[in-house]
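Can't paste images in this forum, so I'm doing it all in text. The chain is below; anyone willing to post the predicted structure tokens underneath?
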Amino acid sequence: MYDFLAHVNKLSIILAPIFYKLLFLSVTGSIVGVLIFIIRKIFDKKIPPLWKYIMWSVVTLSLIMPFRFTSPISLTKDISEIENISFREDYDVIQNEKFLYNRGENIDIEKSQQLKNEADILFYKSLIFDIIIPLIWFFGMIFSLIFIIVNKLYLSYKIKKHSIKTDNFDETLKICKSKLDTNNNIQIVYQDYIDSPALTGFIKPKILLPKYATEISNDSLYYVILHELAHYKRKDMVINYILLAVQSIHWFNPLVWFVFKFIREDMEIMNDSYVLEKIGPEHSRGYSKSLVEVLGLSHNISFIPKLLCMTDGKKNVERRISMIKLGESFKKHRIIVAVCCLAIICLVGGLFLSHKTNDTQKNLKVMWENRTEYVGKNSNVGNIIYSQKFPENIIVENFELGTNQPPYSIKINTKTDTETLNFYSDSLNQSKFSEISFVIFSLVENVEQITFSVDDGKTPFDVTFYRDQADDILGYRGFDKTETFNDFNTTYNDIVNKVNAHYESLNEKANGQMSSSEKAIDDLIKSITKTDEAIKFTIPESYDSPKDWNIIISGRKEFHDGMSMSEHLFEEENSEHKWEKGKEYSITLENQNFTDLSMDIYLQDETVQTIDLLNLPNNDEKNPHSNSDYKYLTFPAYKETNTENLPYIDEINNTPKFDVIMSNIPDSWEFKTSNNGEKNIPGGEFYTPVYIYENDKLIGYIGFNKFELYTDEIQPENYYQTVYTNLRMSIFFSWDPYKAVTRNDVSETGIADVWYLDQSEISNHPGAMPDVPSYETKGILSYNKDLKVYIGMAFLPNAVSEEQIQKIAETLTIKSK
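Text version of the structure:
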């Protein structure tokens, strides 16, 4: 039973969005159908059959066309919210909120019960709207299709059983084929089951003639066969099959059945017009008499799904004869009529086959009105997305919401051309995507990441933006700044300005890195550090061609006997152009007795500067932690991979190097850049993590992140709240509460309680966050305002004593290289 329900749930997940998309099409199609019907009713004797038939095509398109064009006059904006009907994500979100609330301290019973009641209501709404209704539609559609197929098989059987062999009609059929210029192998079946001339069959078409066909005049027989043959020539059977399929899909909508009845009536009128056009208007009287004659001989005429019957009821036959009489009058003013009909089609199509053109500035009010705490609110999120102004040639197709488990996400799928895709695949050209994502972050509280999928039909690419990235660039959490519409207006303008400034800075920096040898040399000189043990320098990443470097390091050593000799360092790297961007090189000073040591820097065959390395200031003199009891870790420890070309990762990789210095580190600890695939480690937003091992067992890690300075007034003891926001507000880990250990004007170090979910188990509990195992441990946090960086050092549960963590925290500092 459980497996059956699980399969039903999986089926409903697929069906629900399809059904509500279809429901939107059904509503718009019904409105268009009623409008066309009213126009047809009022101007029936003014509009030629051809234009009536073309008008009905707008109805069919509105019922089957899954996408919409953009138009400034669309009326489908409010109706389109039907597509977003779903309570599944809302239920998942409230379940997670209930879980997180109930696991906290000082639980309010009333609040807990309120969350439970909301979850129960959303459960039943989701059961009805996400499962039961879509399944009813699906099985109704299957039943309708089966009914049509069974009806067709039964009809074929009956016709075959009641057919009467004769060749009386072969000569007339040959004449009619010649008149309509067709040589298709279509047969006439003389039978006594169907009481009206009709056309059936798609692959092997047949004209069905009733038993009284031998009793009517030769002229009437000629017109009857012409009529049915014209249906075949005009491919009306194909259209009839399409109408049947659409009716089966929209079986629940009586207006669709109502409208399609009139489409079929006008199909007959159009067919009459086609026949008379081929044989000449002088036959109109005889053709009309044949309709009356056949109608008089036909009895019990009803809708037979697979047939196109010549007589379709007395009332419509009268109308058809009236249209035949008006045939010549339709030719008057035909250009004016054509223009008017075309205008009606364009107007109705523009109103109901399009989405309204977006304009961000005009839609700020719409965005703010849809502000929501939960990404699971499909309608709200959809309105916010579709109110954005996307870059030119970028068309939003749809969006996907990730609400089953944190991090909650939005994926926006777009279409474009190859030239546009190539432009925006460059991370320096993605400011508009960044702006849109930051606006969404400011209006949807619990979304953590937003991905734009850009597809040209060949090589699509994805670009993702993260909430902590937005918070760092803006200097605040956007959602907190949009409580009123005026606040949102201010925040929106601030987002636009800061995003533009950020990308201008990135572009300026990128241009400088690739073109300025002067800046590259300056970076190299700034990287040089000297202690009693060694001199270190780093080949800057700010210059794109490391082979152009010519760095000659030479000096003189003195020996105990008073002798001395010259020394040349890094000769292989220099002569063979092996200098590596971002690599740190070291010159050992301890026990070397250098009396002279200099660095001559050449770049692009031009001597730039000579550095006296021994006369550089000793960093140990400024460093309170210069003894061997202290451990130094340099960050960024390595380059973060950036396959998606994210600007924020580029910023992380280009962070000026700094040291984390700490004492009381046991000799048994090793620091490595790999964790051997271990997943169950304390969660946190840290980059280039270095993993801590003891006796080959992972016990913790240390990594860093960046932050923007908070400039508003705040108590010093509360400043940490502006630095570690993303660590304190995450859904699947938390570094809180926090207690400062050391503090000065520019930096602070403290200890935090760390709670986190087992990452290796999350995928095993989809939609059931309370079942995921969680752990609690301790961690160290430290920030430096001058460097605008902070570090986090976390240990696995019970791996290190609290006393040991306290001692490390008391000595830990962050210092520029």
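The first strand starts at residue 69 and ends at 71. The chain is about 45% helix and 20% strand.
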